[in-house]
Amino acid sequence: MRVYPEQFADHLKAGLKPCYLVFGDEPLLKLEAIDAVRQVARKQGFDERHSFVVEAGLDWNQVYDACQAMSLFSARQIIELELPAKVDKDLAARITEIGKQLHPDLLLVLSGGRLNQTQMKAAWFDKLSQSGTYVPVNHPEPRFFPRWMSARFQRFGLKVLPDAVNFMCHAFEGNLLAASQEIEKLTLLGPPQPISVAYLQETIIRHAHFTPFQLVDTLLEGKVNRAQRILLALRAEGTEPGMLAWTLCRELEQLTELALAARAGQPLVEHFSRLRIWQSRQQLIQQALTRLPVGKIQQLWQLMARLDDAQRRFDTEQAWLMLQTIALGFRDGAPLPLLEVEPC
């Protein structure tokens, strides 16, 4: 069963499942989901908790002993395993073995990073998610982020104007923990309600946090204004232009191959499979291919060459300027005025 974070509290009221799988890239949501399980379990007599980080050197005998041991003071216990990004055959077998030992007095909580479609089809995950609950704890998509932000204000008993919600979304996109901390601080200040943008601008500190992969996905969607904000945030955080150049180069290589295949009338399904492009990203790439003809992608390659030249000359300002220009190029198929593109 899959239950999203906003539904999880109500889900727990219906009773505990044998196991919970909490996976995703948002630390705050992950921490809150696991803590919610702990609180409900504690009320039901799960007073003993054993936590393990699965890494090289882990003594699995300790894990198995914890699963089988019965405390003198508590008959019910929680076993928590934080998994690495890759679950190999050996680890999958160990997880499956632990899953076989579950009983009403033993609760299993597995956590880790974001899962792809292949990982969610693995036998160990499929079996445990059928008997337990899978909670995907990823950062809300931009279109759902205002809803999450509004609910966060309500959680702390604060009323806020719609434009103030949008301001908070821009200020804390990619960093839910900082957003939650700032909202909690507001409760201590006793702000006038409903809270306005003007009040927020005077009191909060911006903590937007992004990754190069969020930049790429935003570009594929054609949301170039948001991409410019991400670039500014990445630069402020000290991200090197070279890292972004490498990420964009890899994405353009795939786009070029797929655009040429589409122009030749070839089905893209086979190319998606060979390039190991996740199903969740295929739609984003299809959107980009619909907007960007081969000629526009070639122009982006010319801009990438200028970016590479700027990096070789250690011209940081020029490198960031070229990154901003490349980002603008993802808007549509119209050639940018900086370069002439030869017709294909």
TrEMBL record:
Keywords: DNA replication, DNA-directed DNA polymerase, Nucleotidyltransferase, Transferase
UniProt similarity note: Belongs to the DNA polymerase HolA subunit family.
Protein name stated in the entry: DNA polymerase III subunit delta
Single biological process term from Gene Ontology: DNA-templated DNA replication
EC numbers, comma separated: 2.7.7.7
Pfam family, one: DNA_pol3_delt_C
Protein origin, superkingdom: Bacteria
InterPro entries: DNA_pol3_clamp-load_cplx_C, DNA_pol3_delt_C, DNA_pol3_delta_N, DNA_polIII_delta, P-loop_NTPase
CDD domains: HLD_clamp_pol_III_delta
Enzyme class name: transferase
DNA polymerase III subunit delta C-terminal domain segment(s): 212-328
